[in-house]
Specification:
mainly alpha, Amino acid/polyamine transporter I, two-stranded antiparallel ribbon, globular
Length: about 450
């Protein structure tokens, strides 16, 4: 990580990524985490299987990727925190920056809880006492591991961007190798054929359901980290020589690949062991221990997988906490490490209810665990709204010629398509929602 190529609006030196490869791996690590390994299977299981998968892939390519490129472009142009970048667009939309930071705070508060689950599973697999999810939630392990994860995340964020880069370059390739291996093993399980039908034989009539598209777009934004400030913040550390379009395409390809691999890993086990695909947020944590119990060498592979799973989840938490801490540091003029402490305290307070929803307290809302309610609200509805608003503001408030220079997509069809998605997609989505309400 170099300190000599970027400056913030106040003239201070700002670190940049040491290479495009380091940037791609770091941004992918921040986005992959739980969004694909945990959330994609459970969302696909609850929302139609193959129809959801198809809608998700379309949403990533034609909606999520263009807005991802716009967010990276804004970050690289302004080289500031999320709030400062919206202020750059217009003083009148400065408040949107704080809303995005607030959204990220809510998401990371329960993300830390799930990351704590991966830490707990890593510990139990190392000690040879890998538990089922019901056993794990019999006591208050969800709360204690949540607090430990908060401390670990704060420590990495306090180390700065260089620490994130070194962390990602080691973890991402190792995780990819293990997930590929486990997905291959999944194809040897008895439930393979049913899993393939579930993931790749869509009921096309379901694609007429606006609700399905809302969840698919939400998952696309969630897995790409669109609308949550990650991309803007990570883009602010990009070198001017990096191509935002090329880098974004590679990151999106990684995201889609990991999402599909997670389905190949989870759903064969779901149908082999008789789990319900729509079991909810605990789906991956119910099925994976069973896989390791029956596979040859599972006792040795389980600790490796869950350690990497924990690292992937932790990297997402690190990215989110950095978005929040950077805004607090630069906007409120707090020393950086003080900003990290303040951010951690807020996340602990907000995350405790989600942690308690998977303990003997069973904290819930409307009959669902508090954590799942938060995920449905913040991780779908609010993320979609935030991503669409962010893309529209960037595409409308930055002159097209100036914006396309930052896109590294030239002035042809690709650049025009990217800008048009940002400008007109919110109108299309709003019209679709109104149509569904009227019909």
């Amino acid at each position: 990580m170099s300190e000599d190529a970027g400056t913030k609006g106040n003239g201070k030196q700002r670190a940049i990524w040491s290479s495009q490869r380091a940037f791609i791996l770091s941004a992918a690590a921040a986005a992959v985490g739980l969004g694909n390994l945990w959330r994609f299977p459970y969302m696909a299981g609850e929302h139609g299987g193959a129809a959801f998968v198809l809608a998700y892939l379309i949403s990533v390519i034609f909606i999520g990727l263009p807005i991802m490129i716009l967010e990276f472009a804004l970050g690289r142009r302004t080289r500031g925190n999320t709030v400062a970048m919206f202020s750059y667009l217009s003083r009148r939309v400065r408040g949107v920056g704080w809303l995005v930071v607030g959204l990220t705070t809510i998401i990371i508060s329960y993300y830390l809880v799930i990351t704590g689950w991966t830490m707990g599973y890593a510990v139990s697999s190392i000690t040879g006492s890998l538990q089922t999810f019901s056993e794990f939630t019999d006591g208050y392990s969800s709360l204690w591991y949540f607090l430990l994860t908060c401390l670990a995340t704060a420590g990495i964020v306090a180390a700065g961007v260089a620490g994130i880069e070194r962390f990602a370059q080691i973890m991402m390739p190792a995780l990819a190798a293990v997930v590929v291996g486990l997905a291959i093993y999944g194809f040897t399980m008895p439930g393979r054929d049913e899993a393939i039908r579930f993931m790749f034989s869509p009921d096309f009539a379901m694609l007429r359901d606006p609700g399905l598209w809302l969840f698919a777009i939400g998952q696309a934004f969630y897995s790409l980290a669109v609308g949550s400030g990650y991309l803007i913040t990570y883009g602010s550390f990009m070198d001017d020589e990096m191509c935002t379009t090329r880098a974004s395409s590679k990151i999106a390809g990684i995201e889609m690949g990991v999402a599909l691999l997670s389905g190949f890993l989870v759903f064969p086990a779901v149908f082999t062991f008789g789990f319900a695909p729509d079991a909810g947020s605990e789906l991956a944590f119910d099925t994976l221990p069973r896989v390791f119990q029956v596979m040859g060498g599972g006792a040795l592979l389980a600790p490796i997988f869950f350690l990497l799973f924990f690292n992937a989840a932790l990297s997402s938490c690190v990215g989110g906490m950095k978005v929040i801490a950077r805004a607090v540091h630069e906007q409120l003029s707090l020393p950086y490490r003080h900003a990290v402490l303040v951010t951690t305290a807020v996340l602990v307070i907000l995350g405790v209810p989600s942690a308690l929803s998977f303990t003997p307290m069973n904290l819930s809302l409307a009959g669902r665990p508090f954590l799942e309610v938060m995920d449905m609200f913040a991780g779908t509805q609010v993320v979609v709204a935030s991503g669409l608003v962010t893309g529209a503001l960037i595409a409308w408030l930055i002159p097209r010629e100036r914006l396309t220079r930052k896109l590294c997509a030239g002035h042809g069809t690709a650049a025009n398509f990217i800008v048009s998605v940002g400008r007109y997609l919110p109108v299309i989505v709003l019209a679709g929602l109104l149509y569904s309400w009227i019909i």
